[in-house]
Specification:
- Helix 10 links the parallel strand 10 (about 285-290) and strand 11.
- This protein is an alpha/beta fold and about 450 residues long.
- It is about 35% helix and about 25% strand.
Length: about 450
């Protein structure tokens, strides 16, 4: 590839063709942005902390060894976990899946809440199955987000809805939003309230369709030609307000794709969120899907540009559907040549996670399928079909559980009994050991913006 050129805009636009950038220039851009992200990670994902060691009378104890070990992270690293609940899985496979999942992730999106899945017949809710999945998450300390309440895709407009008179359909949708959040508000605090509002037709238009099952495929739902912001705003605003009324302390996000690859879509998304905020609609987070176009290797400058633009709205950012693959298909987008092999998947994943974790507005990253056994895009999993880790799993494990955690740190307290350290945000186990062998272990939480001063009495 030495000497090859890659299409690029004169103002460093990797998705235009009016100028050319060499492979060396592209690699230099990757290195620069990745180093900036690593520097940012050290700055924004860690905080200073102090352990003060005292005796029973409150006097400082000098000459002690303080051992610091992080046991969990505040940042949410997630993946889909629903495959294991399928009937054809064995207990041994479920146990293996769970072991590998919680060994890397602390977060999952629950897609059973999609209306067509959750209520395939009116009044026949899949709440028992949802409870089963929520119980699994609770047992394994996995944070859950519901994905998604409102979506004008077929998955968000159940077939039985079209047997009703048109005037009743919107009332049914409102009922769905309120019931879904109300029924699960004790166990689900985070929701994608609206999915793909810019790239799919407004919900009111979807509800005007008259169809028998299967007559309308996904295509027409993504035909947004001529649809204006004013046409999109009403149903999105109404959905957020209904969901918030059902759970005033809940966290409600919006979610969209092509944000990283198409600047026109990104701008429309930005304009929509900005308008919602101007109307004081309770939007609490911005979701950025990261799997469209499906074979594109996103350019590092464009990733950073997209993050910065959306972060300017002042809301937390969330990577919601990241799914690079190892399918053997050609890599598209013009930033990287070759095919999507397991090594390419691992390299791109490590780059993307570093850029995302290094952005101050980012609060979660969610992969869209754990195992190749039944992943949405072939080869998109971190495990193969036999539940064996792929190179991408190994690379992410190194980043998430080793590089981005403060593990097995030993610090000697000074003459005033204080041991200072700087650690990644999360929960810790701190063990203090005196020269005579006496010791005590306590749990602590190093928080962003917190005082992070812990007193241990020996």
């Amino acid at each position: 590839m030495v000497g090859a050129t890659i299409p690029c805009h004169a103002q460093w636009d990797p998705y235009q063709t009016t100028a050319a950038v060499t492979v060396a220039e592209r690699e230099a851009a990757d290195a620069r942005h990745l180093q900036q992200a690593r520097d940012s990670i050290e700055k924004i994902r860690k905080s200073a902390a102090q352990v003060q060691v005292v005796d029973a009378a409150g006097r400082a104890v000098a000459g002690v060894r303080v051992h610091v070990d992080q046991i969990s992270q505040d940042f949410l690293f997630g993946n889909l976990a629903e495959d294991q609940f399928k009937a054809d899985w064995t207990d041994a496979e479920r146990a293996r899946f769970t072991e590998l999942f919680k060994g890397l992730f602390n977060f999952t999106e629950l897609t059973l809440v999609k209306w067509q899945q959750y209520e395939p017949q009116r009044g026949q809710h899949q709440q028992e199955e949802m409870t089963r999945q929520l119980d699994w998450a609770a047992r394994n300390d996995i944070v859950v987000k519901g994905h998604t309440i409102g979506w004008s895709h077929n998955a968000g407009t159940p077939d039985w809805l079209y047997a009703m008179p048109a005037r009743q359909r919107l009332a049914e949708y409102k009922r769905h939003v309120t019931e879904m959040v109300t029924r699960n508000r004790q166990r689900i605090q985070r929701w994608d309230a609206v999915n793909e509002p810019v790239t799919t037709i407004p919900y009111e238009r979807a509800l005007q369709e008259t169809r028998a099952k299967g007559q309308i495929d996904d295509g027409p739902r993504y035909d947004t030609r001529g649809i204006t912001l004013d046409q999109v705003l009403p149903w999105v605003e109404q959905t957020f307000r209904l969901a918030h009324a059902a759970h005033p302390h809940g966290e409600f996000h919006i979610n969209e794709f092509n944000v990283l690859s198409r600047r026109d879509i990104r701008q429309k998304y930005f304009d929509l969120v900005e308008a919602l905020l101007q109307r004081k609609v309770p939007v609490h987070g911005i979701g950025i899907q990261a799997h469209e176009p499906r074979e594109m290797w996103f350019a590092t400058p464009e990733i950073v540009k997209a993050f910065d633009q959306m972060a300017a709205l002042g809301l937390p950012l969330h990577i919601t559907e990241f799914l690079p693959q190892s399918s053997g298909k050609p890599i598209t987008g013009g930033w990287r040549e070759g095919t999507w092999t397991e090594e390419a998947q691992a390299t791109f994943a490590a780059q993307f996670y570093t850029l995302a974790f290094g952005h101050p507005a980012m609060k979660s990253i969610h992969w869209w399928g754990f195992s190749d056994r039944s992943v949405w895009l072939p080869g998109g999993g971190l495990l193969d079909a036999e539940l064996k880790p792929k190179p991408a799993h190994t690379r992410l494990f190194q980043l998430i559980k080793r590089d981005w955690m403060t593990r097995d740190l030993a610090v000697d307290a000074d003459a005033s009994g204080v041991a200072a350290f700087r650690g990644f945000h999360g929960r810790y186990r701190i063990t203090v050991t005196a020269p005579d062998g006496a010791s005590r272990t306590v749990d602590a939480h190093v928080q962003e913006g917190g005082e992070n001063r812990f007193v241990v009495t020996l």
